[in-house]
Amino acid sequence: SLRQLMVRATPQGESGGAVLVMHDVTEIRRLETVRRDFVANVSHELRTPVSIIQANAETLLLGAIDEPAAARRFLDAVSRNAERLGQLISDLLDISRIEAGKYKMELDALSLTAVARSVSRSVSESCRRREVVFGVDIAPELQVHGDARALEQVLVNLVENAVKYGPEGGVVDLVAVEQDTAVRIEVRDEGPGIGPDHRSRVFERFYRVDPGRSRHMGGTGLGLAIVKNLTEAMGGDVGVDPREPRGSCFWVRLRKVSPKAPEADAP
Ligand code: ADP
């Protein structure tokens, strides 16, 4: 491929020698575009709920407040959009913290069953609301290399999506599959699945397979970007596979921590 290289000569040191600094301009331009798109997306995403809140508040002030049934509807819209705005801001702060290296990680050996227990607690209310059965299948002694809070957030995001996009009354499973030197933690659902054209893109910020549907469900479009950022910060990777006959299997893979060999008996 054609790569443009910008070469700059910088005077260096007392000897007056020069050092060549080469920047890959193509990459710099690409990152610049990504940044600009992100700022444009953020502005758009923030403006939408603000406009809705404003319009509904104005309607109330113009007289709707005197009709209780109508007032309730307008206030409901105000409340839902304020909540959405709050979630958006909190997700954006998470992303910028992670990207600035300010999300303090303590990488350690984590018991997956312990992490799964906190995840179960965090998602129990969403599961109950959609009558979803949440199953966990993890070998009790399994340990991975990661940060407890980050891994919990990753798995909660994936399970919340599985519950949200999967059918009401469906089943969502959290399963750990041991590999050679890694553990693949899978979140399996029975939802519509992710088409092959979207699979490589769903982890991008603000990428949505079905924008209307996702916004309607209160999604910010940032959940999977957070999943990817946090997992990579723990040295792992993420992906999504289709399931038969339907559904998706979102997975994160982290380094396996082998249990310490028992101390050899003293002779
Ligand atoms: P959102 O807040 O919109 O859910 P995410 O970053 O969590 O944003 O997900 C990005 C998009 O990927 C969603 O808008 C949705 O279209 C799709 N998606 C995520 N998880 C699932 C799933 N389990 N099943 C089907 N589609 C999903």
TrEMBL record:
Domain Histidine kinase: residue ranges: 41-258
Subcellular location: Cell membrane; Membrane raft
Recorded superkingdom: Bacteria
N-terminal signal peptide: none
Name by which UniProt lists this protein: histidine kinase
Organism: Enhygromyxa salina
Lineage, opening ranks: Bacteria, Pseudomonadati, Myxococcota, Polyangia, Nannocystales
